[in-house]
TrEMBL record:
Pfam families: ABC_tran, BCA_ABC_TP_C. One of its GO terms (biological process) is L-alanine transport. Belongs to the ABC transporter superfamily. Residues 6-253 form the ABC transporter domain. This is Leucine/isoleucine/valine transporter subunit ATP-binding component of ABC superfamily. GO terms for molecular function: ATP binding; ATP hydrolysis activity; L-isoleucine transmembrane transporter activity; L-phenylalanine transmembrane transporter activity; L-valine transmembrane transporter activity. InterPro entries: AAA+_ATPase, ABC_AA/LPS_Transport, ABC_transporter-like_ATP-bd, ABC_transporter-like_CS, BCA_ABC_TP_C, P-loop_NTPase.
Amino acid sequence: MTAALLQIEALTLRYGGLTAIDSLDLTLEAGSLDALIGPNGAGKTSFFNLVTGLNKQQAGTIRLDGARIDSLSPDRRARRGLARTFQNLRLFTQMTALENVLTGMHLHVAESLFEILTRLGQFRSQERAALREAKELLSFVGLAAAAHRPAGALSYGDQRRLEIARALASTPKLLLLDEPAAGMNPAETAALKDLLLQIKGRGVSMLLVEHDMSLVMQLCDKITVLNFGRKIAEGAPAAVRADSAVIEAYLGVKGAGELRGAGT
Ligand SMILES: Nc1ncnc2c1ncn2[C@@H]1O[C@H](COP(=O)(O)OP(=O)(O)OP(=O)(O)O)[C@@H](O)[C@H]1O
Ligand SMILES: [Mg+2]
């Protein structure tokens, strides 16, 4: 049997006395678009921070393509094929949209001035290729016209799509999306849905954290539900929506309405 793309076992993260991720198991198969949902504070962003290496777990293992990555630096993990977007946007607001996408690329940076001088020609052709690729990514996410505008001047929805373009610039195998639809209007959310399907069509696997249940239910192959850092349900959208533990976890919070309203 081939290994899953992402395989998490018994992952645990504590902040002092608070267990943010509690012995979590999770598997994502290559080619899939899965979701990780749960009420506010359930541990979703904490989980992304563990997988990408911004936080270090107290216990458990993380495997990408069958190989342990849980002691690698965030940069090494990115080079293995992991990319993410952030719940709170982290764009370089003064830089143009195009420059932001370029920062997402793994350019082979020369180590010394001597190398730079001797490899200038090679360097320039790499740079030209990077520019072409960055422009292609901007038009892929629908932002071709905004290439030379400062990222900070774009609408909120456009900034979220720019973050996706930047994440794709590293040609990831697995893209972790932290609330990409937050702050989007219905038209932007509909465009986002199409975009995520196109990314899937390019062979990039995704794990989506999202409070827009309609989007999650329509898009995702498998849903994992977290509550207080623990997995309380997992499965196909229809089964998860009908799960009594899930309904209970969302009761009394804003999400209960979202869950009921996510019939389509
Ligand atoms: N740096 C930190 N130090 C201490 N506690 C933290 C820290 N970051 C998160 N927490 C706590 O860990 C728990 C999980 O937080 P996390 O941000 O992962 O939740 P979430 O599921 O992403 O929530 P939301 O839907 O609101 O984004 C919460 O109780 C939160 O208050
Ligand atoms: Mg979060």
